[in-house]
Amino acid sequence: MQNFPFGLITLVVISILIYFGIAHRALDRLRLSDKGALAVIAAIIVGSFFDIPISSRITINLGGVIAVGLAIWLWIGAGTALEKTRSIIAAVITALALFLAGRYLGAEPEAIFIDPIYIYPIVAGIVGYLAGRSRRGAFFAAVMGVFALDFGQFYYLSRTGLRGVVHVGGAGAFDSLILAGILAILLAELVGETRERLQGGPQTEGRPEELIRNLREPEPARKPQSEEKREERPEEDRNDEGGEKDD
Amino acid sequence: MTKRISIITLFTIFLLMIATPVQAVYEELGGGKYYTLIDENNQVIHQTAMQVYTGDEYIAADNSKYRVVEIVGETVRCVYQGKEAMPAVNYDEQKQAWVVEGDAVQAGSGSKQKTIAIYHTHSDESYTPTDGKSSIDGQGGIYDVGNALTQKLTALGFKVDHNTNNHNPHDINAYNRSRKTAMTLLKTNPDVILDVHRDAVPASQYQTQVQGQNATKVKLVVGKSNPNQKATMEFAKQIKAVMDKKDPGLSNGIYIGKGDYNQDLNPHAMLIEVGSDTNNKEDAEKGVALFANTLPTVLGVSSGSADTSGQQSGPAAKPLTGSNRGIWTNILILVVVVAAAGIGFYYLNRGSVKK
To answer: Does the interface ipTM go beyond 0.90?
Structure first.
């Protein structure tokens, strides 16, 4: 790549920045802090460079393993037993859907074909969201569903005795596993947020007061001032400040 | 009410954005079936076993560009779009080499030996007349074609990284598996990464004579679901332009289909179809060796000197010209799409709770 012309280098750099920017934005919506999401992305990128041979048939990529680890960590921390069960069901359905798609979609010319790269997040995002109406559920279903596909190939190679190695999470930060997880979160968010907006905002009935408070649009930021000062200077006055300066 | 309409509109736009790649895939028809592309006068333009969709495009060997408008069974109706502008390739007397105008990789700008990475997503693809079958699970004749390409490129002075991983079964998930291989290959920073395939159409579609000897044609495939599409397209056009100058008759055009083909991973990732399952493998090996001959020119090095370490000669670096615009357009599109999506998400996340 060092021999690429400037335009191509810019394209590659911008694509990577956008990808990681979106990844950060997506992971941020899980049970991770801003810095936590950044740390996970950094770990995935660094981990991508390490392939660990497990047997003559299996090699795992550290970057891919971190994503699987994150999915499991989120699952362990799920609020209720019901959420955990739903996530597992979603992951199983996703894996099954992907397996069946691989098995049967390719043969019939009239069938609707789906690009391999995009089928995972779309299936996992929809199933994950429907099963738990949760971004975490969608992420878990996507990552574990794609992860299961690698075991499908392992079974296929073992059964047929063909040469070949299964590279679990082998494309590191750009593996379908991670792409699927990130896009599934965004899809769940898109569907979820759109649905909430259409109904006029998130449902508040029977929800804890703190949650409702946090869901409300934040007040515009103001400089910390004492109550008295704020009363003395009504908002209109402050807005006029620094007003029109003709050239 | 206005807010509700705008939300529905926004959601529809998002769905359309998502739905576009949903239709996209690279798959073969199988069972000896293939698509025949015809123009407005019912003349056959091309045949392919790749899944064809309305909106796909094909740049024929003579640079005529067609757009798929209707698919009835295995017949594909296309409309002529005019001649596609190709990069100029001229013979430089001083350097005694062909030179691509525009932004071909410039020689002397790097100190390392040029590297070409090769892999095969469809590990079973074979050539019936030579291999006995069109598909051999896990070790198709396509690997021999990869070997022929490797030998020729090595002889030309390139460093070649030929990965022979098995990505079978040949199903919808094959690209998921080969993606891992492509990423592994990209870690060594290759100048070009090639996914070598063969088509599945009647032999006549690919059979050719180049410099008086039998060979198969080579087709380039560019994926539209790939965010680097414009850059990949420029690269494909450079390769085709050089093929047409150096070995007329070798190119079987450029197919622009819905798919990704791992081309999002690198702007110099190219899918090539070397002959068909009905051609002789030896002819495919000759075809791919001739294709290898184009890469020194595309990458801006003289034949036999792809190792540029310490080398000062070679085509002079050129100012960026017209063909580079595609890449900047690509960058602009990416930034605009991301900004639009960002604003959309911001808007969706705004608003208060239900009263």
So the answer is: no
Predicted TM-score of the model (pTM): 0.78
Sort out which chain A residues have CB atoms less than 8 A from B169's CB and list them.
102, 153, 156
Q: Residue B55 and residue B258: Cα distance in Å, rounded?
A: 9
Confidence band, pLDDT 50/70/90 cuts, at residue A230: low
Number of CB pairs, chain A paired with chain B, less than 8 A apart: 229
**Closest-CA distance of chain A to residue B110, Å:** 5
| Residue B122 touches chain A, beta carbons under 8 Å | no
| Pairs from A123-127 (Cβ < 8 Å, separation ≥ 24) | A123/A94, A123/A97, A123/A98, A124/A90, A124/A94, A124/A180, A124/A181, A124/A184, A125/A183, A125/A184, A125/A185, A125/A186, A125/A187, A125/A188, A125/A191, A126/A187, A127/A90, A127/A93, A127/A94, A127/A97
- Which pLDDT tens digit goes with each residue over A28-68? 878 788 888 889 989 998 998 888 999 888 899 999 899 99
Mutate to test the interface with B, among A4, A104, A159, A204 (most CBs of B within 10 A): A4
- A163 in contact with chain B, both atoms CB, cutoff 8 A: yes
> Phi-psi bin for B275: left (phi > 0), alpha (psi -120 to 50), beta?
left
